[in-house]
From TrEMBL:
InterPro entries: dDENN_dom, DENN_Domain_GEFs, Tripartite_DENN. This is MTMRD protein. Residues 1-76 form the UDENN domain. The gene is Sbf2_0. One of its GO terms (biological process) is regulation of Rab protein signal transduction. GO terms for molecular function: guanyl-nucleotide exchange factor activity. One of its GO terms (cellular component) is cytoplasmic vesicle. It comes from Sapayoa aenigma.
């Protein structure tokens, strides 16, 4: 699964290399608007006549991509690193399948680590009920809840949460690297 995702990550990194150089930040409105200059992107790559890429750039998914990844100051991820720093590596691996496969496996490992930051934590599996368990008569009734104890626990929790610092996500925002300009590479 992760290797297939890594292949698509590489594909989209190759497809959108240099997209950041074609972003325009318009600050006329109260909220800044990010515009992608499609003609410049296609023209610099010499792909104005490419029907597939034109349809990709005109799609709703790409518009969402630009609005999500367009801001110059946000949390960076693996895709940003690929687009900005791995351009030459991806280009050099085009004629060498073993190197390409090695890179795909490295990316898959990074994807796995991103999704499972604590590999030592084991997930407990809940066993399936045995056959006929629903027919058993000796099931104990659910115990009654002590309302006073529930209120005490709520008050304790509120007291602890008021003194604790607000929870924040671990994503550090930074300036997104632009990578090389579009004109540096030509796609076939």
């Amino acid at each position: 699964d992760k290797e297939v995702r890594a292949i698509f990550l590489r594909l989209f990194a190759q497809l959108f290399q240099g997209y950041r150089s074609c972003l325009q930040l318009i600050r006329i409105h109260a909220e800044p608007v990010i515009h992608f200059h499609k003609a410049a992107f296609l023209g610099q790559r010499g792909l104005i006549e490419n029907d597939f890429l034109t349809k990709v750039l005109n799609g709703m998914a790409f518009a969402g991509f630009v609005s999500e990844r367009g801001p110059p100051f946000r949390a960076c991820d693996l895709f940003d690193e690929l687009v900005a720093f791995e351009v030459e590596r991806i280009k050099a691996e085009e004629g060498n399948p073993p190197k390409m496969i090695k890179h795909v496996r490295e990316l898959a490992e990074q994807l796995f680590k991103n999704e499972n930051p604590n590999p030592h934590i084991a997930f407990q599996k809940v066993p399936r009920p045995t056959e006929g368990s629903h027919l058993r008569v000796h099931i104990l009734p659910f115990p009654r809840i002590n309302e006073c104890r529930v209120q005490e626990l709520l008050q304790e929790g509120l007291a602890r949460s008021q003194g604790a610092p607000p929870a924040t996500r671990g994503d550090k925002k930074c300036v997104v690297p632009a990578g090389p300009p579009v004109g540096m590479f030509m796609c076939s």
